[in-house]
Design goal:
The structure is a single chain. The protein has 520 residues and is of the alpha/beta class. It contains 20 helices and 17 strands. Helix 3 packs antiparallel against helix 18 and helix 18 runs antiparallel to helix 19. It is globular and about 70 Å long.
Length: 520
């Protein structure tokens, strides 16, 4: 779901049981269910109740009966209760909970810059446990989070409050309908002019071969988010920090290249190569409908999402084919950026490992609950349960060989893919051939190798305080420019003015000072 930051802070949905917690910061425990045979290592004694608050609501299945979660609790001697908080209003809700002392014991949230800054701000105000204090209690986790990786996430006050959930499964990218290229006799675009021509023909010709010209779109946006088809040629991420030629950090949305990209997006909308009604799209509506109804040729997404979309597309267009597109750079741009991703290390084969979410621990949890939290964190780092599900149910094992008995959809519904794991996930790729069609596996590998790593994950006081307002203002003004309500020059001048008024310059200075300090 890449999920990397966009203007609206959308994240990939996360899965767990849809069970609203009845109380927050836990103070006691209950008797654990009998441990399964062969689980002699399961801790004895009362099982502490741990409340986990998740940003995002899982809508693809019933989480109230979750065999992976049940197995997880048995093996760690814990009772886990879950609160899911919708993306819309999440900031207000979690802030209110922390301010009122009713926040969950554990917070699981998204990876966008704004949310990470907000969570770190809770830590700086004494509301979160320092992960550096917990790591010695989690030897398996500590092996994965070496000093170099920890430095990526240390907050402005010098403390580590969050741990990322590793993701070894593909990242965001720009995708193109290969069958549309074939239908129109076009080649994969290698220059910016060829790219524009492909988008134009996708929108004006008959790429889907339904006998009608002009009933499709070249690309799709989602309000002023999902702008990657327009941003990619100009080498800028949607909303993130990027390096300049002199090794400084600059917020992508204030760069000259971003201005050019916004102008290009405006051209595409004006020419109806992108649906002018994009400003009315809502989450999971509009963009996704165009993609799944086979009405758009180029779009941004993550490999898993693209696979799900393709399955629906192929119900009506069996020969449809979607591949990762390395968008050609515009003139004067050294390299295009099809996607930025949360890549935090390379695995033993040199392939990127990123992260899909973050974890934090409430500072008010008692010792019993804290022990349970460190136990489940450490368990997820070493146990295959979080990758392939329940032995005997989702897979069988002979020696070191695994045979999966369910498809990926089933594993997702059991919560057995990448949501829970705290530490290393390098084993995930070995199951790609079992879980994904060959074409999807290829796309996953291509997105991982072509995605640009984010430069920083840390925050600063002004970032924490201002970034939400900055990105909201960018959303407002860029939407007006792209939709044609405001001219590019006037709209951009107003944006530069608002960026300064919202302390964007102060934020940039703080980030660069911190970045320079870390580099020493």
């Amino acid at each position: 779901m890449s999920k990397y930051f966009n203007l609206f802070g959308k994240v990939a949905t996360v899965g767990l049981t849809v069970a609203m917690m009845t109380s927050c910061s836990s103070s006691g425990g209950t008797t654990a269910s009998p441990a399964p045979s062969g689980s002699s290592s399961t801790p004895a004694g009362p099982a502490p109740t741990i409340n986990i608050g998740f940003k995002g609501v899982f809508t693809e299945g019933d989480r109230t009966k979750n065999p992976v979660l049940d197995e997880w609790m048995k093996k760690t001697n814990t009772v886990i209760k879950v609160q899911e908080m919708p993306d819309d209003g999440y900031v207000q809700k979690i802030t209110l909970q922390f301010n009122s002392g009713t926040a969950p014991d554990v917070v699981h949230s998204s990876t966008d810059t704004t949310t990470i800054g907000m969570i770190n701000n809770f830590g700086a105000n004494g509301l979160l446990k320092k992960m550096s204090d917990l790591l010695p209690k989690m030897p398996n986790v500590q092996k994965f989070y070496d000093k170099e990786m920890q430095s990526k996430f240390v907050n402005a006050d010098g403390s580590l409050y969050i741990l990322p959930t590793p993701r070894d499964v593909g990242y965001g990218a720009v995708f193109i309908r290969q069958d549309w290229l074939d239908n129109l006799g076009l080649k994969t675009p290698k220059t910016f002019d060829e790219y524009k021509e492909v988008l134009k023909q996708f929108a004006t010709k008959d790429p889907d071969k339904n006998g009608k010209d002009g009933d499709t779109y070249g690309a799709v946006f989602d309000k002023s988010g999902s702008l990657e088809p327009a941003l990619a040629p100009f080498g800028v991420p949607t909303a993130d920090w990027m390096k300049t030629a002199d090794n400084k950090l600059v917020w992508s949305q204030i760069t000259p290249e971003y201005k050019k990209a916004i102008g290009f997006a405006r051209e595409l909308v004006t020419a109806k190569i992108v649906d002018p009604e994009f400003v009315t799209y809502q989450p999971n509506n509009g963009k996704s409908q165009l993609i799944r109804n086979s009405k758009v040729g180029v779009y941004q997404g993550v490999s898993s999402g693209a696979a799900a979309d393709l399955a629906i597309i192929q119900e009506k267009a069996p020969n449809a084919k979607v591949v990762v597109l390395e968008v050609p750079p515009a003139p004067g741009i050294a390299k295009s950026v099809s996607a930025y991703g949360n890549i935090i290390k390379k695995n033993k084969d040199g392939l990127p490992v990123g992260f899909s979410s973050i974890w934090a621990v409430n500072s008010k949890v008692n010792a019993e609950v804290l022990d349970g939290i460190t136990r489940i964190f450490d368990f997820t780092t070493k146990d295959q349960l979080m990758t392939v599900g329940v032995e005997g149910k989702d897979y069988t094992k002979s020696g070191n060989e695994y045979k999966l008995s369910k498809d990926l959809k089933g594993l997702r519904q059991d919560g057995a893919w990448d949501v829970y794991t705290i530490g290393n996930m390098e084993g995930q790729r070995e199951f790609w051939k079992d879980l994904w069609p060959a074409e999807t596996a290829a796309n996953m590998a291509n997105t991982g190798l072509s995605t640009q790593p984010r430069v920083i994950y840390f925050s600063t006081p002004t970032t924490d305080a201002q970034l939400t307002q900055i990105t909201a203002k960018a959303t407002e003004l860029f939407t007006q420019i792209i939709s044609g309500k405001v001219e590019l020059e006037a709209g951009w001048a107003e944006w530069e003015k608002q960026f300064k008024l919202l302390k964007g310059d102060v934020m940039t200075q703080e980030i660069n000072e911190r970045y320079a300090k870390n580099a020493k």
